[in-house]
Amino acid sequence: MFPERVPDAFETAARLGYDGLEIMVTADPVSQDVDVLRRLSDYHGVPVLAVHAPNLLITQRVWGRDPWRKLSKAREVAELLGARVIVVHPPFRWQREYAREFEAGLTRMGEETDVVFAVENLYPLSPGGVEVTAYAPHWDPVEMDCPHATLDVSHAAVSGSDVLEMAAELGSRLAHVHLGDGTKPGLPDEHLVPGRGTQPCAELLSQIGSAGYAGIVVLEVNTHRAASLAERQEDLAESLTFARKHLEAAGRQRAGAARAADGLAGGSGPTPPGSGLPDRH
After folding, report:
1. Are 100 and 68 in contact (CB under 8 A)?
2. Nearest residue to 149 via CA among 131, 172, 133
3. DSSP 8-state secondary structure symbol assigned to residue 132
4. Nearest CA to 51 among 72, 22, 76, 82?
5. Rounded to a whole number, what is the distance in angstroms from the first to the last CA of the chain?
6. Residue 32 in contact with residue 63, Cβ under 8 Å?
7. What are 38-60's pLDDT values in tens digits?
8. How far is CA 217 from the centre of its chain?
9. How would you list the strands of the sheet with 116-120, edge to edge?
10. Other CB atoms closer than 10 Å to residue 111's CB: what's the count?
11. Which residues pair with 23 in a beta bridge?
């Protein structure tokens, strides 16, 4: 919701009918205050579903400089708020000790809580056409030994990765999705409204929905170019409609296939057309 405030995000989510929010912990004191976040959540009826740990370059001083302390604090906040996921960035290359222990340490931390630590895919940088990675052991959780991952579609566009292939390779490790479109490899990281870029956003939702994905899909959309608050909210409403349309279609298709399989297993013959659609009330 930047440049709007955290309270505005709760208000907008409630107005547009979002199921919940992911809170990115930043230098904004409200994003760090569990009591304030809980009051906002209760007042608007919008749960906090995920917490994004402050391990961006611009949040290096938030909650101190110890990266493990940041993750422990993020776990504490997530548990207090009832969030299911903590989004984690891979270590920077200069955080050598942290990077060396990252995979094993994150696995240990995950065994101590029901909250999922999901490592997000980032991207290499290519200054002057020379590829440089700022992250270790890798910018891509597909290549890492971590139990759970966050798949960011816009980041996949920047890295030139095939997001459908990434989702398939992650399999059951895929615990969280950041849905936002992009157009081409290389910066900027666009986070466009889904459907306004070239990434297979609809196909991804169909793929994971058909596979029985039980994680969270978070709309991470850049609304900086919106000329007004009304236009910003229109973008967020369009994004929500897009995500629900394709996830629900995949869910109906999967339910229909399951009912058809049950019918065949029970010897009752083919399932009549349309019988796989759930009742609507």
Report:
1. no
2. 172
3. B
4. 22
5. 32
6. yes
7. 999 999 999 999 999 999 999 99
8. 6
9. 21-24, 48-52, 85-88, 116-120, 149-152, 174-179, 216-219
10. 8
11. 51
What are the DSSP E strand ranges found in 6-131? 21-24, 48-52, 85-88, 116-120
222: CB partners within 8 A, 6+ apart: 180, 190, 191, 192
DSSP 134-186: -BSS-S-GGGS--S-EEEEHHHHHHHT--HHHHHHHHGGGEEEEEE-B--SSS
Q: Where are the domains of the chain?
A: 120-269
Q: pTM, whole model, 2 decimals?
A: 0.90
- pLDDT tens digits for 211-269? 999 999 999 999 988 999 899 999 999 999 999 999 999 988 887 777 776 666 664 44
Please report, as a single letter, which amino acid is at residue 102: F
CA 227 to chain centre: 26
| Spatial separation of the C-alpha atoms in residues 262 and 58, rounded to whole Å | 52
Q: Is the peptide bond before 185 cis (omega within 30 degrees of 0)?
A: no
Q: How far apart are CA 177 and CA 214, in angstroms?
A: 11
